[in-house]
C-alpha cells in the first residue's frame, strides 16, 4: 500500500537521518526475526503462561504462522496499517509478532480513548485492518504459513505508539524497522550493565495492560532472550499477582510502588519470589526510593526513558545500596546511548529511537533534530556519568506513567460558561505518582460545578486527565514576570 500521505515526508526524512546515525549499530536481522529465531531454537521451552495454560515456543511459533497466513490473506504486507486492539494473552503476543513479521505498519490502541479519539487515530494511521479478539480468533483458524520470515523494509514505519490523548489529540510516535532492528533486547552480548544484572531475574515476568506498550513489549523480548517466561497477570494488581503467580519480576509505576510499600508495611505478603521491579513513568524521589529498597529489599531498578527514545539510563539496586549518592540519579546511560545538555535540557540519541510523530511535522521539528531527541526534561550528567533530572520544560502531569498536558485540560475547563480562567498543575500522589489538580476563577455571577467540570474533562480527554480536585479561587497568583505562578496556588484539599 502506497504511503503518499500529507505530513509523512517529514517523518521519512527524519528517519533517514536517524538511520544514518545508527548505521553502525544495526543488526543484520530485521525485526522481529530475532524473536522468530528464538522461538524456533527450542520448541519445547515454555514461553507464555496464562492461568493453567502453558504455551511452549513451538506452539507460539505455530500461532504466529497462523496469524501471518491470515494477515497475508487479508492483504496485509509491508506498509499496510494494522491496529492491534488486544489485551494480554499468548494469542495477543503471537498477533503482535505476526503483524511485524509481515512488515505491517503496526499501531496499538491505547486504553481509555474517547470514541471520537479512537475514530481519529484509525483514520490518521490509515489502518486497513483492526485486529481485535474476534478478528484474532478468525486469523488463528488459518492454516499456518509455510514461510515465516521478517518482511519489513528498514525505511518503512514499523510501529506507531499512540499517546493516551490527554493533549487533546493522541500523538503517534513513529519507529522504523531499522530502528526496531537496532534494539539491544534480543542480543545478550549487547546488554548494558544494569540490564545484564536484571536479565537473570526475569524467570517469571508479569505482563499486564497491553503488549502494544513500548515498555511492556521491550521487557517481554528481554525476558524471552534471557530464558524466562511471560506470565499474564490475573489479577493484575500488586501484591496479589506477584504472590499468585510466583512472579520474579514486573514493571511498576511510581504510584503503584508507593502502594506496594505501604501494603508491605501494614500487612506483609509473601514476596519471596520477587527479584526485580522496574519503575516506570516518573522518577522516584531519593527518600521514597530508599524506603522502597528498605521495605522490599534489593529488587528496585530505577531508570529513565521515553517512548521517543527507549531506555536512556538505568541503575541496579546493588549499585544504589553501595553508593547512596546514586539514589539521587536515574543511573548511567549505556555505551550505545549519548546524552547531552543544551540550555539546561537533556537531548539524547539511542540506537532504537523514534523518527518523529506521525503526520505532525511541526511537533516532529520541535523534538527531533539532526539525529537527536529533545527530551523536554531539565537535567545534567555529572562527572561520573550519572544522569540527574531536575524538572520539566513542558507543562505536563504524569499520571500512572501517562502524560497529561495541563494546557489541554485548562482549555476544556474554560469551555464551561461558569469558568472565566482555569489552571492545572501536578501534585504528588501515592496512588498515581502524580495527580491532576485544577484551580478555576468563576465567570461573573456564575458558580462552577466541580462534578460537571470533571465530567466534561472525562468525556473529552479521558478519565486519566480528570482533575482530582477543583479549587475555586478569586484570582491566580502572578510571578514577577506577570505570568501565572502555578507554584503559588493554594494547596488543594483532597477528600476521600
TrEMBL record:
Stored PANTHER family: LONG-CHAIN-FATTY-ACID--COA LIGASE (PTHR43767), NONRIBOSOMAL PEPTIDE SYNTHASE PES1 (EUROFUNG)-RELATED (PTHR43767:SF1)
CDD domains noted in UniProt: AFD_class_I
Domain spans labelled AMP-dependent synthetase/ligase: 40-358
UniProt keyword annotations, A-Z: Ligase
Organism the protein comes from: Cellulomonas xiejunii
Residues annotated as domain AMP-binding enzyme C-terminal: 409-483
Gene Ontology molecular function, alphabetical: ligase activity
Coiled-coil ranges from the UniProt annotation: none
Protein name: Long-chain fatty acid--CoA ligase
Listed InterPro entries: AMP-bd_C, AMP-bd_C_sf, AMP-binding_CS, AMP-dep_synth/lig_dom, ANL_N_sf, ATP-dep_AMP-bd_enzyme
Region listing for Disordered, in residue ranges: 477-496
Amino acid at each position: 500500500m502506497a504511503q503518499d500521505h500529507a505530513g509523512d515526508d517529514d517523518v521519512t526524512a527524519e528517519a533517514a537521518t536517524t538511520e544514518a546515525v545508527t548505521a553502525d549499530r544495526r543488526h543484520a536481522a530485521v525485526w522481529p526475526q530475532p524473536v522468530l529465531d528464538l522461538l524456533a531454537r527450542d520448541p519445547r521451552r515454555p514461553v507464555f503462561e496464562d492461568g493453567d495454560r502453558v504455551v511452549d515456543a513451538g506452539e507460539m511459533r505455530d500461532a504466529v504462522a497462523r496469524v501471518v497466513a491470515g494477515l497475508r490473506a487479508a492483504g496485509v504486507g509491508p506498509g499496510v496499517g494494522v491496529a492491534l486492539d488486544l489485551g494480554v494473552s499468548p494469542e495477543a503476543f503471537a498477533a503482535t509478532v505476526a503483524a511485524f513479521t509481515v512488515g505491517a505498519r503496526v499501531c496499538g490502541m491505547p486504553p481509555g480513548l474517547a470514541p471520537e479519539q479512537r475514530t481519529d487515530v484509525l483514520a490518521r494511521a490509515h489502518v486497513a485492518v483492526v485486529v481485535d479478539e474476534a478478528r484474532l480468533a478468525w486469523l488463528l483458524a488459518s492454516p499456518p504459513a509455510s514461510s515465516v520470515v521478517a518482511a519489513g523494509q528498514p525505511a518503512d514505519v514499523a510501529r506507531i505508539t499512540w499517546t493516551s490523548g490527554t493533549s487533546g489529540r493522541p500523538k503517534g510516535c513513529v519507529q522504523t524497522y531499522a530502528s526496531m532492528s537496532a534494539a539491544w533486547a534480543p542480543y545478550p552480548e549487547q546488554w548494558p550493565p544494569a540490564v545484564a544484572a536484571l536479565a537473570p531475574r526475569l524467570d517469571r515476568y508479569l505482563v499486564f495492560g497491553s503488549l502494544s506498550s513500548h515498555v511492556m513489549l521491550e521487557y517481554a523480548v528481554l525476558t524471552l532472550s534471557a530464558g524466562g517466561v511471560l506470565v499474564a497477570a490475573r489479577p493484575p494488581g500488586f501484591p496479589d499477582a506477584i504472590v499468585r503467580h510466583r512472579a520474579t519480576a514486573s514493571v511498576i509505576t511510581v504510584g503503584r510502588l508507593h502502594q506496594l510499600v505501604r501494603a508491605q508495611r501494614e500487612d506483609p505478603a509473601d514476596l519471596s519470589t520477587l527479584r526485580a521491579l522496574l519503575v516506570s513513568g516518573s522518577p522516584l524521589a531519593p527518600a521514597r526510593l530508599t524506603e522502597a529498597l528498605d521495605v522490599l529489599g534489593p529488587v528496585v531498578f530505577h531508570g529513565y526513558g521515553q517512548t521517543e527514545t527507549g531506555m536512556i539510563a538505568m541503575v541496579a539496586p546493588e549499585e544504589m545500596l553501595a553508593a547512596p549518592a546514586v539514589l539521587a540519579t536515574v543511573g548511567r546511560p549505556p555505551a550505545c546511548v549519548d546524552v547531552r545538555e543544551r540550555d539546561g535540557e537533556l537531548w539524547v540519541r539511542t540506537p532504537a529511537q523514534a523518527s518523529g510523530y506521525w503526520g505532525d511535522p511541526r511537533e516532529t521539528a520541535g523534538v527531533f533534530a539532526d539525529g537527536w531527541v529533545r527530551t523536554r526534561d531539565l537535567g545534567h550528567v555529572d562527572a561520573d556519568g550519572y544522569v540527574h533530572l531536575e524538572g520539566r520544560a513542558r507543562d505536563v502531569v504524569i499520571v500512572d506513567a501517562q502524560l497529561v498536558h495541563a494546557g489541554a485540560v485548562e482549555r476544556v475547563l474554560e469551555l464551561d460558561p461558569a469558568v472565566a480562567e482555569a489552571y492545572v498543575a501536578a501534585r504528588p500522589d501515592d496512588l498515581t505518582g502524580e495527580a491532576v489538580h485544577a484551580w478555576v476563577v468563576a465567570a461573573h455571577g456564575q458558580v462552577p460545578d466541580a462534578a460537571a467540570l470533571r465530567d466534561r474533562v472525562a468525556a473529552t480527554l479521558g478519565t486519566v486527565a480528570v482533575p482530582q480536585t477543583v479549587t475555586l479561587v478569586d484570582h491566580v497568583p502572578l510571578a514577577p514576570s506577570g505570568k501565572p505562578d502555578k507554584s503559588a496556588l493554594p494547596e488543594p484539599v483532597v477528600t476521600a
